[in-house]
TrEMBL record:
Repeat as UniProt keyword: no
Organism ancestry: Bacteria, Pseudomonadati, Pseudomonadota, Betaproteobacteria, Burkholderiales
Record PANTHER family: HTH-TYPE TRANSCRIPTIONAL REPRESSOR GLAR, TRANSCRIPTIONAL REGULATOR, GNTR FAMILY
Protein name per UniProt: FCD domain-containing protein
GO molecular function, one term: DNA-binding transcription factor activity
UniProt cross-references to InterPro entries, sorted A to Z: GntR_C, TF_FadR/GntR_C, Tscrpt_reg_HTH_GntR, WH-like_DNA-bd_sf, WH_DNA-bd_sf
Keyword DNA-binding in record: yes
Length: 246
């Protein structure tokens, strides 16, 4: 048996497995409705537990009932909407129990992926990580004092940085499940960024993770990543429970 565990990993990439429903193109009616609904669920315009009435929403999003149902079906696949058989659809509830489960599972898998990436990563991988951090840093500066307009840009850059960190990991299944977990945490992460329930320097957290990763210090990088992910959970715990009542 090889001493290096990475030699046992498949060479498949995340792209070789089906992930979340494809990010629907705004060039299609279904895509436009999907992205509009998803945005409004993430930013709280459609709060957790909201009944999604097709006859009302088709007017709001300017599409037909069939198109809207297709968009809602994509959001069911995203686990942002719940289908109730003949009773229709509603926005998936939020809860601290749900976010705790997301957080701890993500820590378990993302640290494993980061260890593998550090073990397998080459100069090109390091360059991708540094470039992603630079783009995130620029987005962080634009986010300050302008959360509503810049959150989606920051969220995309934050996602890209976390993906770059583990991009050298060869396990397609780790990438697949981490994409789902990251996606599920987005509503909670937005609350943390907007409401700032605890003092926090997210930039410094990212910088420390970057430095340990580039030093190929897997133990330190994983410890910092664990603290980084778990701090968001601890921040959300400080928010009023009414935010999670449906």
């Amino acid at each position: 048996m090889p001493d290096d565990f990475s030699a046992l990993l498949p060479t498949a990439t995340a792209a070789s497995l089906p992930g979340l429903p494809p990010a629907a193109s705004t060039k299609t009616l279904v895509g436009s409705a999907y992205l509009g609904l998803r945005r409004d669920i993430i930013n709280g315009t459609l709060p957790p537990g909201t009944k999604l009435r097709v006859e009302h929403l088709k007017t709001v999003y300017g599409v037909g009932a069939g198109t809207l149902r297709e968009a809602l079906a994509l959001l069911v696949s995203d686990a942002l909407v719940v289908a109730e058989g003949q009773r229709g659809f509603h926005v998936k509830p939020m809860s601290m129990a749900d976010f705790y489960d997301i957080t701890e599972t993500r820590i378990l898998l993302e640290c494993q992926a980061l260890r593998q990436a550090i073990g397998c990563g080459d100069d090109a991988w390091e360059g991708q990580v540094v470039a992603a951090f630079h783009r995130l840093n620029r987005a962080e500066k634009r986010l300050e004092g302008n959360h509503n307009e810049r959150f989606e840009e920051w969220e995309a850059r934050n996602r890209d940085f976390h993906h770059a960190l583990i991009s050298a990991c060869r396990s397609a299944w780790l990438h697949h499940f981490l994409a789902i977990l990251y996606h599920q945490a987005e509503r909670y992460r937005r609350l943390s960024i907007e409401r700032k329930p605890i003092p926090r320097d997210v930039h410094a957290e990212h910088q420390a993770i970057l430095d340990a990763t580039l030093a190929h210090d897997a133990d330190t990088a994983c410890a910092l990543l664990t603290d980084h992910i778990r701090t968001t959970y601890e921040a959300i715990k400080q928010l009023p429970q009414a935010l999670f009542e449906n």
